[in-house]
Design a protein that fits this description.
The complex is a heterodimer of chains A (about 240) and B (about 260). The longest helix of chain A is centred in the N-terminal third of the chain and has 42 residues. Chain A is built from eleven helices and no strands. Chain A is an all-alpha fold and about 240 residues long. Helices cover about 85% and strands about 0% of the residues of chain A. Chain A is globular, with a radius of gyration of 21 Å. Chain B is an alpha/beta fold and about 260 residues long. Classes of the chains: A mainly alpha (about 240), B alpha/beta (about 260). Chains A and B meet through helix 7, helix 8 and helix 11 of A and helix 2, strand 6 and helix 3 of B.
Chain lengths: ~240, ~260
């Protein structure tokens, strides 16, 4: 396996066809992946944070305890999350068309990605906040802090390290989603690998796409690990 | 009897918790008055309802029946913003210290001052004063995890005193500390009471703590207050069974004997 990776990379670096047409396509595909992933992480990450906070704070005994709201959100999240993304992508097509105007292309692929990212992020956020010490919330309440202030200035800073690691996890999931978006001509590295690797039976294309994705994921995970470790080191 | 100086007053107060269809009474028909400027102890076994009782004072819990009066106000009738103001007059410290781990020592103490919308220079000045009072000026830039338990509780005391409260609630504040550190923290609490005239309501399951610093105590058992009085009276002449057990246990510990009579 290792040698085939090496072969593919050497081949890609030296072959004339790669030089002429595949490398520019790879760069374009990488750009599209970055665009899809960053937009999804940005919008879905923020919406997911809000939804996750809603899930956490409406739980029994929590700041905005509300059994009905919690149950509704919980069920919605539970319905969407287990659907394989590739099926979800096609299932929400009618909705995508009505929102984006089309169901094909990078922007159209972004819509279901954002929804899916929001839902996945919300669970990660909720799970990390549940592990927060309820004592610190009680202390802040005893000082007369408002509930929104407790969330923004106490809860989130206290859980920052696990949240950063959670978002790194989401990043990987979104890269995965972006590859599947290739199936609706969403562009990106997944599309690149499918079109020029799988359909044209050129394994070197598939392998190069994999290597690029691995490097991207490693980079982000590494940065998240370093930041989280620094935070935890002092704060214990 | 008419007592002009009561700062906290419970009038037939009960607190019930409902969970999974059944009801549990944590506090039952409690009537109690706490004198301004005193150190008042609430003693009882874990699960006796002590923590719930003191949380009614700053409304971290709300009573099911009865009236709780704090600083002349019926706390049950206060709206959100009135409650916030009241809470600034009531400091609280906890068994687990509950410091904000993501904030440095000085930021922990500063937080309640920010809530009270006090200006930056005044805040910094007050933080320095408070850290000096608890003897931790040199630890101002440390994170809580870098401090010992006793130091963390001193920071928590500084934080609880930041808004010049009139009442300090101490929920098992020394239960997680070793005997020597317990003594240090109790001495500090006594200074808080004597130097600032702050009324302290102290929960504990340890009789020796009560005897060291309390003026008056209430003994709680299964949600009820079974005995109230001056510490000396209670020690000399315990009436309720729960009280007798507490006094006996303490005597046995002090005599160093394990007798079952």
């Amino acid at each position: 396996m290792m040698s085939s990776f090496q072969d593919a990379l050497i081949f890609a670096a030296t072959d004339a066809q790669w030089q002429k047409s595949l490398i520019p396509k790879l760069i374009q595909a990488f750009g599209e992946t970055l665009y899809m992933v960053s937009t999804t992480i940005l919008i879905g990450g923020i919406l997911g944070l809000v939804l996750g906070l809603a899930l956490y704070t409406t739980r029994r005994g929590n700041l905005f305890e509300n059994v009905v709201v919690y149950q509704v959100l919980n069920v919605v999240v539970n319905i969407i999350r287990p659907i394989p993304f590739i099926i979800f992508l096609t299932a929400v097509r009618p909705l995508t068309i009505s929102v984006v105007g089309t169901s094909i292309g990078t922007v159209a692929a972004g819509f279901p990605m954002i929804i899916f990212c929001t839902v996945a992020t919300s669970r990660i956020v909720e799970q990390n906040l549940v592990s927060a010490d309820p004592g610190i919330i009680e202390a802040a309440r005893s000082m007369g802090a408002s509930r929104l202030r407790i969330i923004a200035q106490i809860l989130i800073p206290e859980c920052l390290a696990p949240l950063i690691l959670g978002y790194a996890f989401i990043f990987v999931a979104v890269v995965d989603m972006s590859a599947m978006a290739g199936t609706v001509a969403g562009g990106g590295l997944g599309d690149f690998a499918l079109q020029y690797g799988y359909r044209e039976m050129d394994d070197s294309v598939t392998l190069v796409a994999i290597v690029v994705i691995i490097i991207l994921v490693q980079l982000v995970q590494q940065v998240a690990n370093i930041v989280a470790k620094r935070l935890l080191k002092k704060r214990g | 009897m008419f007592r002009i100086a009561s700062i906290i007053k419970f009038d037939n107060v009960s607190k019930e918790f409902k969970a999974h269809g059944s009801t549990f009474s944590a506090v039952k028909n409690v009537s109690l008055e706490i004198e301004r400027g005193s150190i008042f102890g609430v003693i009882g076994h874990s699960g006796a309802g002590k923590s719930t009782l003191v949380r009614l004072i700053n409304q971290l819990e709300t009573q099911t029946h009865g009236v709780v009066e704090v600083l002349g106000e019926n706390v049950g009738s206060l709206n959100e913003s009135e409650l916030k103001k009241l809470r600034r007059k009531i400091g609280m410290i906890f068994q687990g210290f509950n410091l904000f781990k993501s904030k440095r020592v000085w930021q922990n103490v500063e937080f309640p001052l920010k809530l009270a919308k006090i200006g930056k220079t005044e805040r910094i000045e007050k933080v320095e004063q408070l850290l000096e009072f608890v003897g931790l000026s040199e630890k101002r830039d440390a994170f809580p995890a870098q401090l010992s338990g006793g130091q963390q509780q001193r920071v928590a005391i500084a934080r609880a005193l930041a808004t010049n409260p009139e009442i300090l609630l101490a929920d098992e504040a020394t239960s997680a500390l070793d005997p020597e550190t317990t003594l240090d923290v109790l001495k500090l609490l006594k200074r808080v009471n004597r130097e600032f005239g702050i009324t302290i309501v102290l929960i504990t399951h340890t009789m020796s703590v009560v005897r060291l610093i309390c003026d008056e105590i209430a003994v709680m058992d299964s949600g009820e207050i079974v005995e109230v009085g001056a510490v000396k009276e209670i020690f000399d002449n315990p009436k309720a069974t729960a009280t007798k057990n507490f006094v006996n246990t303490l005597e046995q510990l002090e005599r160093g004997v394990l007798d079952d009579e």
